Amino acid sequence: MNRNHIHPATLTCFFVAFVLLLTTSCSTGKKLNYFNDLPDTETYELKAMPVPERIIERGDRIDINFIVRDQESAAFFNKHNMAGAATAAAAMVGVGGGGGGVSTSGAEYVVNEEGEVEIPVIGRLKLSGLTLSQAKQKLYGVVSPYLKEPLIEVSFTTFKVTVLGEVKTPGSFIIPAQQATIFAALAAAGDLPHSAKRYDIRLYRDYNGKRTIRKLDLRKASVLEDPDIFLMRPNDVIYVQARSGSIFKEDFGLVASLFTIVISVVTLGFTIHNTSK
């Protein structure tokens, strides 16, 4: 009898072991990858996603910039400073020599607990609850008596998100953008390690007077087309849960058990094969 001949039962055992390992490996990959249910095509067109206007809230930092056409209106604006505030207002309005229009250098304002900012000459002005375009209109109305045909620029200077739990670098992050996506938030935290539950992530949101908790699954492509998840809101908190054990314990524990069984069967096959010679 040919001693190099391998019994068919042994080959079957090896094949079963290979299939089990391959199947479990694919299952593990699906747990670790994002958007597993995207179609297998080179290009996939996502639906257009409207970007909502951000609402000014307490604690926001905004930049307000007044641009005026002539120096007379800027000088008139400065005349109405309260005592002790003239220097700050003059710097803000940018009064100086030279022709052409006059522009402020822009100033950052912090929205206080009452939702107000305090601007020289104007005083305290409530802006919380407004969009940037609405804030511009309100500012235009209050400065128009002092500045002739003013142009007003208003923008956010910060976008804060917090990412906690099973991420590489948890913490609060200031993203230098007017709008941020969930990709930007996770990237700021160093992305998710293998031990993170991509299928069980919580999004805590306290925005514009409404508090919500959303559960999301980053393995699903639907995340890409849901603006309430994909587009972050200021001060959002993302909490990533950890797996119950290490990835090896959770994902390969079953494989180890199955592999032990298969090895036992293969060993038994070799034993039977050798004794039958």
- Please trace the helix and strand order, writing H or E for each element: HEHHEEEEHEEEHEEHEHH
Gross morphology? elongated
In percent, how helical is the residue content?
25-40%
Read across the widest sheet, the strand sequence of neighbours is 8-7-11-9-10
Beta fraction: 15-25%
User: What is the number of strand segments?
Assistant: 11
Can you tell me the residue ranges where pLDDT is under 50 for at least 5 consecutive residues? 75-105
Output mean pLDDT: 76
Largest β-sheet summary: 5 strands, mixed
What is the SS-derived class? Answer: alpha+beta
The CATH topology of the largest domain comes to Outer membrane lipoprotein wza fold like
- CATH homolog superfamily of the largest domain: Outer membrane lipoprotein wza domain like
CATH architecture heading of the largest domain: Roll
CA distance, first residue to last residue: 7 Å
If you compute it from the alpha carbons, what radius of gyration comes out, rounded to the nearest whole angstrom?
31 Å
Question: Which oligomeric state applies?
Answer: single chain
